[in-house]
Amino acid sequence: MCGMAAFMEVLDMSIANVSLLHIAGSLSASREEATWVLTSYLVANAIILPMTGWLSDRIGRKRYYLGSLAIFTLASVACGLAPSLEMLILGRVVQGMAGGALQPVSQAILNEAFPPEKRGMAIAVYGLAVIVGPALGPPLGGFLTDQYSWHWIFLINAPVGVLLFMLGTRLLHDPPAQQARQRAAAERGGFDPWGFALIAISMGSLQLILDLGQQEDWLASNLIRTLVVVCVLSFTFMIRRELSHAHPIINLRLLANRNFAVGNLMIAAMYGTLMSATVMLPLLMQSMLGYSALGAGLVMSPAALVMAFMMPLVGRITGRVDERLLVSLGFFSLSLAMLAMGSISLNVSEDQLIWLRTAQLLGVGLLFVPISGLAYVGLPTTELGNASAIFNLSRNLGGGIGVSLMTTFLARQTQSHQVHLVDRISPLDPAYQETMSAMQSLGDPLTSQAVMAAEVTRQASFLAFMDNFEFLALAAIVLIPVIWIARRAPQVHGPAAPAEYHG
After folding, report:
1. Fewest beta carbons within 10 Å, which of 62, 86, 349, 356?
2. How high is the pLDDT of residue 309?
3. For 257-503, which CATH superfamily applies?
4. Alpha-carbon distance 258 to 264, whole Å?
């Protein structure tokens, strides 16, 4: 149930990507205006995510989870029925704020609901939902939009949300430790408005920078420069405020734990690499290889079967095998897969693409559960809610930063390769003369020149894609030594996962 709720939330991060043109046309908006359907959700999500541990303790985990699920479902219906772009964006803001609770609270519930010997399998199922969700969003969104209308990419959440709410009311119960934390929070009372404001401003401005940076040409834009200043100042004051407050909204002191700090870095890097490849591969297939959005999604979908097999298997052996070894093997496998992806040609077959994507997720399948296991070593159970909020925030920010960096790198490398290729073209080159002679059949010399220019741009773009995958391969291999800074999680008898450990 928790995995399905998290899956529904992460699915909504990407399901609208391929439907923006349809939304813009239906609601009489421009493409730039329609992108706020994505941006508004991500900003609202980023603002609420770090506060979920604090809100769980104040409201009660079950009550907060079910309330967020109900609001998310109602907001999804409102988005599907929105008569204007403004109403749709408002609905997405509410949806993003409610959805921000579903991931970390789901993970916190699993960490406390299962004993150590069964927790690994539970986290594996949860991880499967979180990792596969973003990859299935675009093809599912494309299918629903093509076969029905864009409204159904939001309305599809309604029956699932209602079912999960009914199950949650019957199955979920706050454990005694959670009830004690809620009573303690009620007795303390008070609310830190400055901390809340600084978190909202810093997280919101950071997400806007990541989402609009490439579109606005980064620091060449007054908007981005202003957002950077706001983000740096608010982030600095937020850290100072949260570290000095007796009862902070975000307990940043948890990052003093070596394993938790390394775990957050690893999950951010893993998700950044995964999301970058998840964005780059469909873009490559659609812009360079002639695939439709649905066709690209179908090529990427079989890899999910590997994840469905790998994650539970890794969940069973985590705790028996050193998690640091599994993470090292996962990043090494991921690096090889990215390196192979960076070596393809424009004549790559569909089968090759399927196998290459499968190899990528094979490496990712070795990462999520052991990283989660290592991250929680040494943390008291009373802080699992706060830790889960920070851990999920790191994962989401890692994905956002990775995609933003890679799209910028793609644009810059395309320009660089284009200049390099043009410099190598000479009218005296026999190969150039032979090519231009063959294109004389087009008739107009200007047409021949246009065809040549288009081919140069195409080759430059393809080389830039290859550079991206090679960079991701290098990033994955560089991360391997870092994981060995962490302590090994205590061994348990049976499938293991995050456990309280002081050592």
Report:
1. 349
2. 80
3. MFS general substrate transporter like domains (1.20.1250.20)
4. 10
